[in-house]
Amino acid sequence: MASSIIEASQKHPRPGDRTFAYGTAGVSPYRNLLDSVVFRVGLLAALRSQKLNGKTIGVMITASHNVPEDNGVKLVDPMGEMLEASWEAHATSLANAQNDHELIARYEHLISSLKINASTPAHVILAKDTRESGPALVTALTDALTSVGAKYDDYGILTTPQLHYLVRCLNTQHPPHSEPYGVPTEEGYYKKIGGAYAKLLQGKPRPGPITVDCANGVGAPKLRALAEYIGKDTGILDVKIVNDLVDQPSKLNYQCGADFVKTQQRPPPASQASPLARCASLDGDADRLVYYFSDSDGTFRLLDGDKIATLVASFITDLVKSAGISDLKVGVVQTAYANGSSTAYITKTLGLPVICTPTGVKHLHHAATKFDCGVYFEANGHGTVVFSHAAHTTIASHSPESPAQASALENLCALINLINEAVGDALSDLLLVEVILVHKGWGPKEWDSTYTDLPNRLVRVEVKDRTAFKTTDAERKLVEPVGVQEKVDSLVGKYKQGRAFARASGTEDAVRVYSEAAERGEAEELARLVADVVVQF
Ligand SMILES: CC(=O)N[C@H]1[C@@H](OP(=O)(O)O)O[C@H](CO)[C@@H](O)[C@@H]1O
Ligand SMILES: [Mg+2]
């Protein structure tokens, strides 16, 4: 084994003195440096599969919303979740081995310390987004898998959530799973969520046209395929796709996409919709979604992950109640970046519990499993709903006592099929929002008016050493460097409805400062002052 790994690894040498880290979004984003990392992540994927008795592990090659020249890689665990946190360090360890000798030593150390039976057959599935560097990185990955004798299936170009879906389907085909999550094919994905969407819209008015900005990425062909599956003639998914230049890789995420819209607080130039028309943007690998529209007076209105979370949580709460089910706990999970107004709306108006976790969907996902119906979204539009085992069995075995309850129950079952429980999924979330707006009889303005966002500001601060910034309380308070938090607190105290925090980014070499206040000018000022404090330290 060692000799075949070395022989393959020699084709994917480690570049100079770079240090890689497996973090919030896998190893990402890196430019031209990822070949050896992907090779080594491939070795780890096979080990992960062997450790879990041959369960299928996913490898996705993408750098999401980042610039086209970057790329990244992440692993998907058997139920479609992010790689278990304790294994991130193993990925980092293999990625940073200085030479092949050290690589083999670390690989063999993992086998012995994790008690892996090296003769267990491994199975890995892989996919990539539309980046130009994708095919070469797939070669690095498959070279690694071949060198350790792992079986693999290459699914070509997919959205990140489609790969998560496939992993979950493949690992739920047999007992102890009572039924497979779905058919493990791309078509099976469209059939499952498209079918649930059509069911939820039966007898309802059509949603009307929606403009979807696909960030010039993989979302464009996949949304088109989904719309085709749902059927043009049914007229229930009338999408106008913009930013679909998939054959021009340099356009990926350029002046478009969910991250552009959220951070710039403006529509992508290519998305020209009339006032009050629904618009949405996906990111480069289609796991984030934001909505927006322009008001009658032309003002841009953003409906971000917080607005999606509140919409979904309120709909599920109503549906559970209408179905006559009383013992399911619905809750929402957010991060510190959630707008304070959304948190107040969830607790006070919707009467639901909220959990705040550190940034990164793996934290949110995990916390959401504490509820029967756990709705989680990052403000940037990445999120989904997870249903507990109890929720699945209660809903499946519930006997309705009236036609109204029966219809609510049917909708609840269809809703579960519409939602991608494995991971936040822009295509599934898009259909989900469309369904809810139809059921509520709302346009984007009614949805937007549920609560008013507090003016806020997010700034990126360059510092010498971001690791000096250590936080507690779901990243809302700094414990190091000592003394910074007191300064932040005294600034925040001066602003009406003021809130601010600073934390080291997990994906970029910077500290992020977030602020909110009652007035726009105050939020801006607060962010600036907190950023000054950060720079001083
Ligand atoms: C403020 C913000 O949007 N942070 C993003 C960003 O994390 P940072 O740790 O802030 O760099 O990238 C993560 C991965 O995509 C995403 O989960 C997170 O929400
Ligand atoms: Mg993404």
UniProtKB/TrEMBL annotation:
<dbReference type="InterPro" id="IPR005844">
    <property type="entry name" value="A-D-PHexomutase_a/b/a-I"/>
</dbReference>
<dbReference type="GO" id="GO:0006048">
    <property type="term" value="P:UDP-N-acetylglucosamine biosynthetic process"/>
</dbReference>
<protein>
    <recommendedName>
        <fullName>Phosphoacetylglucosamine mutase</fullName>
        <ecNumber>5.4.2.3</ecNumber>
    </recommendedName>
</protein>
<dbReference type="Pfam" id="PF02878">
    <property type="entry name" value="PGM_PMM_I"/>
</dbReference>
<dbReference type="InterPro" id="IPR049023">
    <property type="entry name" value="AMG1_II"/>
</dbReference>
<keyword id="KW-0413">Isomerase</keyword>
<dbReference type="InterPro" id="IPR036900">
    <property type="entry name" value="A-D-PHexomutase_C_sf"/>
</dbReference>
<dbReference type="GO" id="GO:0004610">
    <property type="term" value="F:phosphoacetylglucosamine mutase activity"/>
</dbReference>
<dbReference type="InterPro" id="IPR016657">
    <property type="entry name" value="PAGM"/>
</dbReference>
<dbReference type="GO" id="GO:0046872">
    <property type="term" value="F:metal ion binding"/>
</dbReference>
<comment type="pathway">
    <text>Nucleotide-sugar biosynthesis; UDP-N-acetyl-alpha-D-glucosamine biosynthesis; N-acetyl-alpha-D-glucosamine 1-phosphate from alpha-D-glucosamine 6-phosphate (route I): step 2/2.</text>
</comment>
<feature type="domain" description="Alpha-D-phosphohexomutase alpha/beta/alpha">
    <location>
        <begin position="56"/>
        <end position="91"/>
    </location>
</feature>
<feature type="binding site">
    <location>
        <position position="283"/>
    </location>
    <ligand>
        <name>Mg(2+)</name>
    </ligand>
</feature>
<comment type="similarity">
    <text>Belongs to the phosphohexose mutase family.</text>
</comment>
<dbReference type="Pfam" id="PF21405">
    <property type="entry name" value="AMG1_II"/>
</dbReference>
<keyword id="KW-0119">Carbohydrate metabolism</keyword>
<feature type="binding site" description="via phosphate group">
    <location>
        <position position="64"/>
    </location>
    <ligand>
        <name>Mg(2+)</name>
    </ligand>
</feature>
<keyword id="KW-0961">Cell wall biogenesis/degradation</keyword>
<keyword id="KW-0460">Magnesium</keyword>
<feature type="binding site">
    <location>
        <begin position="503"/>
        <end position="507"/>
    </location>
    <ligand>
        <name>substrate</name>
    </ligand>
</feature>
<dbReference type="Pfam" id="PF21404">
    <property type="entry name" value="AMG1_III"/>
</dbReference>
<dbReference type="GO" id="GO:0005975">
    <property type="term" value="P:carbohydrate metabolic process"/>
</dbReference>
<feature type="domain" description="Alpha-D-phosphohexomutase alpha/beta/alpha">
    <location>
        <begin position="113"/>
        <end position="172"/>
    </location>
</feature>
<feature type="domain" description="Alpha-D-phosphohexomutase C-terminal">
    <location>
        <begin position="458"/>
        <end position="532"/>
    </location>
</feature>
<feature type="binding site">
    <location>
        <begin position="378"/>
        <end position="380"/>
    </location>
    <ligand>
        <name>substrate</name>
    </ligand>
</feature>
<dbReference type="InterPro" id="IPR049022">
    <property type="entry name" value="AMG1_III"/>
</dbReference>
<dbReference type="InterPro" id="IPR016055">
    <property type="entry name" value="A-D-PHexomutase_a/b/a-I/II/III"/>
</dbReference>
<keyword id="KW-0597">Phosphoprotein</keyword>
<feature type="binding site">
    <location>
        <position position="285"/>
    </location>
    <ligand>
        <name>Mg(2+)</name>
    </ligand>
</feature>
<dbReference type="Pfam" id="PF00408">
    <property type="entry name" value="PGM_PMM_IV"/>
</dbReference>
<feature type="binding site">
    <location>
        <position position="512"/>
    </location>
    <ligand>
        <name>substrate</name>
    </ligand>
</feature>
<feature type="domain" description="Phosphoacetylglucosamine mutase AMG1">
    <location>
        <begin position="183"/>
        <end position="290"/>
    </location>
</feature>
<comment type="function">
    <text>Catalyzes the conversion of GlcNAc-6-P into GlcNAc-1-P during the synthesis of uridine diphosphate/UDP-GlcNAc, which is a biosynthetic precursor of chitin and also supplies the amino sugars for N-linked oligosaccharides of glycoproteins.</text>
</comment>
<feature type="active site" description="Phosphoserine intermediate">
    <location>
        <position position="64"/>
    </location>
</feature>
<keyword id="KW-0479">Metal-binding</keyword>
<dbReference type="GO" id="GO:0071555">
    <property type="term" value="P:cell wall organization"/>
</dbReference>
<dbReference type="InterPro" id="IPR005843">
    <property type="entry name" value="A-D-PHexomutase_C"/>
</dbReference>
<feature type="binding site">
    <location>
        <position position="287"/>
    </location>
    <ligand>
        <name>Mg(2+)</name>
    </ligand>
</feature>
<feature type="domain" description="Phosphoacetylglucosamine mutase AMG1">
    <location>
        <begin position="304"/>
        <end position="442"/>
    </location>
</feature>
